[in-house]
Amino acid sequence: MPFTLEICAASVASCIAAEQGGANRIELCDNLLEGGTTPSYATIALAREKVKIDLYPIIRPRGGDFLYSDLEFEVMKKDIELCKQLGCNGVVIGILTADGRVDKERCKILTSLAWPMGVTFHRAFDMTDNPFEALEDIIAIGCERILTSGARNTALEGASLLKDLVERANDRIAIMAGSGVRAANIAQLIKTTGVTEYHTSAKAYEESKMVYRNPNVSMGGIPGVPEYGISATQKKEVELIREIGEKTLLS
Known about the structure:
Layout: E1 4-9, H1 12-20, E2 25-28, H2 41-50, E3 54-57, H3 70-85, E4 90-93, H4 104-114, E5 118-121, H5 131-141, E6 145-148, H6 159-169, E7 174-178, H7 186-193, E8 197-200, E9 203-207, E10 229-233, H8 235-250
Parallel strand pairs: 1-2, 1-8, 2-3, 4-5, 5-6, 6-7, 7-8
Antiparallel strand pairs: 9-10
InterPro entries: CutC-like, CutC-like_dom_sf
Protein name: PF03932 family protein CutC
Subcellular location: Cytoplasm
């Protein structure tokens, strides 16, 4: 199986770095600190102009859980229509019911609306009460892949379930591992899970060019996130992950 690398990009600049680094596909998001929300129309439009590789915007109207109101569902449908108009290759969705199951009815509406674009089911999968039941539901809905960390905080922690999901899927749907995927662990993940599709932001915080910095005000205040740091995908990290991943599959 070929090695496939998807980059979770939160800006047009990150999309460009992802393509230059050899990524196969981009999941375009906003607000990565909330797990990713739908980017603006302008961001999607300009990203589509600037990169040629597959572009899949996430369709998620807000952070938090994956139980959406009727109004939020209407927003999701409108965003899918816009992605189609802008020439995106696919979208990324995920809706759950209150009892932790895949909302098959609503998700089927979204996949039908997205056609002929592709559809990835995102890490809402990791919040379901039964991953194997969810797997079958998502296959029935018509998604082409599932992004998952194996129902743990990181793919490395969820490696055992990832392996089981690959076996259960039996080529009926792609299993894409994400969360905590880095050049340092990609070889181990491939060897222990059998997964060949991977998802990562490959990002680092670049120092702001601001000269004046008010020491009395914090606009972020999130532990581990620099106040004057700009998160961006790094071309060299994309290249390294791709190189190690391909070598591991060939070995």
